[in-house]
C-alpha cells in the first residue's frame, strides 16, 4: 500500500528522517517530491520503531523539512528486464543512459534477487576460455564459479577486464549452439574509464551480447550500492529465464565497500575493522553467492569481481573477506607490471579451487592437470633460485639452477606475457607450457606422468 507524508524531521547529507510512520519496510522504495514538483528516488535504510531513515539518490539541497512529499511505494527496488537489455547501457538503478529508450516488460524484478536453495545448486564443471594463458592454464575459470581479481591502484585491471569480456567464450559440445552473454557492472568509475570500456567492446564487435550497468564517480553514492544488485538481477533473468550462460564482471568492489562504509558512518553505526561496517562480510556474500548453477536450469552465472587493494595490502578487509567467500583469486603483481609484463598476473598466490574438476580429459586436454602442477612447481623453484642468486651471484650457480632461471625468464616472457589483443586457444596455452618445460632436465619434471612426457615432450 502506498503512503505519503508531508513533513520531515531532519535532513543530514543525503539522508532524510521521518517519524510517525507506519508499516514501512527496510529497503522499500521512496519517492521524494520537493515544493517545486521535482522528484527523486530514495531507499529506506533504517527502521526504528515509528521512525525511518531514507537515503536519497542525489543531492538534498533543494529539499526542505516542510512542504516535501515523501511517498512510500510499498515495494523493494525493482527493475524492468527483457531480452532487449542485451547491447544496452544503464545507470546503477537500471535507467537507460544510452539514449535508446526504456525497457518495457510485463514483470519487474527485485534487485535483491531470489534466495537459492543450496540443495538446488549444481556443482560447476565446464570451463570458460578467456584466451589468457595464465588464467586458462593455471587458474582455469569454471562456469558457475566466483573468481575475483585482486589488483592495486595503477595496475591494468580495467584492461584485463575488457580483454576477458572481449575474448571469453564457452566451448560447445556436440555442435550445440551456446547462448552466452556478459553483464558488466562498473561502480565509482571515471567517465574516461567508462568510455574506454564502451569503445573497446564496440570495436571488438561484442557489444551486442554485453549489458552494461555504470555508476560514475560523481553519481549518488546510494546508486553505487544498487548497481551490482541491478547487474546480478539482470544476470539471474538471462541465466534462469532465458537459459543463457552469463559472465558477470564487477569493478571495483573496493569502491562499493567504501560506499558501504560512508553510508554506515552516516547512519552512526559502530564501525568495525578500518571503519567498515560489521556486516561487510554478509553484504559481500549477498552479492557473490548469487553466482552459480541450478540443477533444473540450463543457464549459469559466473562472477569475476575486481577489487583494488589499498596499498597493495591483501590483508585489507575487502580482499580478506572476499577470499573467504569466493573460490580462489587472481592476483596482479606490481613487480611484473614494472617489468612491462601484461597481464601482470602473479601466478604463485593465484588459484582456482574449482579448476581440478573442470579440466583434463573430456574438458580441456588430458595433460592439463599435470602441466599446470608442473608449471606451478617449477616456477616456485625459480623464486628460490633467484633468492640464492642474489646472495652468491648467478655465475656461481650450478647448471641445474641456471636452467631454472632461464625457465623463469621464458615463463614470464612467453606464458604470462601476451598482447592485449592476443587471444590464445587452450591448445596453444598447453603447447607453450610444454615448450617451456622442455628447458628443464627431464628428471626435474616430477609432476608429469611418463606417458605424457613421451607423448608431448619427445619431439621438442
UniProtKB/TrEMBL annotation:
<dbReference type="Pfam" id="PF02874">
    <property type="entry name" value="ATP-synt_ab_N"/>
</dbReference>
<dbReference type="InterPro" id="IPR004100">
    <property type="entry name" value="ATPase_F1/V1/A1_a/bsu_N"/>
</dbReference>
<dbReference type="GO" id="GO:0005524">
    <property type="term" value="F:ATP binding"/>
</dbReference>
<keyword id="KW-0375">Hydrogen ion transport</keyword>
<dbReference type="InterPro" id="IPR055190">
    <property type="entry name" value="ATP-synt_VA_C"/>
</dbReference>
<dbReference type="InterPro" id="IPR022879">
    <property type="entry name" value="V-ATPase_su_B/beta"/>
</dbReference>
<feature type="domain" description="ATPase F1/V1/A1 complex alpha/beta subunit N-terminal">
    <location>
        <begin position="11"/>
        <end position="74"/>
    </location>
</feature>
<keyword id="KW-0813">Transport</keyword>
<dbReference type="Pfam" id="PF00006">
    <property type="entry name" value="ATP-synt_ab"/>
</dbReference>
<dbReference type="GO" id="GO:0042777">
    <property type="term" value="P:proton motive force-driven plasma membrane ATP synthesis"/>
</dbReference>
<protein>
    <recommendedName>
        <fullName>V-type ATP synthase beta chain</fullName>
    </recommendedName>
</protein>
<dbReference type="Pfam" id="PF22919">
    <property type="entry name" value="ATP-synt_VA_C"/>
</dbReference>
<keyword id="KW-0066">ATP synthesis</keyword>
<dbReference type="GO" id="GO:0046933">
    <property type="term" value="F:proton-transporting ATP synthase activity, rotational mechanism"/>
</dbReference>
<dbReference type="InterPro" id="IPR027417">
    <property type="entry name" value="P-loop_NTPase"/>
</dbReference>
<dbReference type="InterPro" id="IPR020003">
    <property type="entry name" value="ATPase_a/bsu_AS"/>
</dbReference>
<feature type="domain" description="ATP synthase A/B type C-terminal">
    <location>
        <begin position="357"/>
        <end position="456"/>
    </location>
</feature>
<dbReference type="InterPro" id="IPR000194">
    <property type="entry name" value="ATPase_F1/V1/A1_a/bsu_nucl-bd"/>
</dbReference>
<feature type="domain" description="ATPase F1/V1/A1 complex alpha/beta subunit nucleotide-binding">
    <location>
        <begin position="131"/>
        <end position="352"/>
    </location>
</feature>
<comment type="function">
    <text>Produces ATP from ADP in the presence of a proton gradient across the membrane. The V-type beta chain is a regulatory subunit.</text>
</comment>
<keyword id="KW-0406">Ion transport</keyword>
<comment type="similarity">
    <text>Belongs to the ATPase alpha/beta chains family.</text>
</comment>
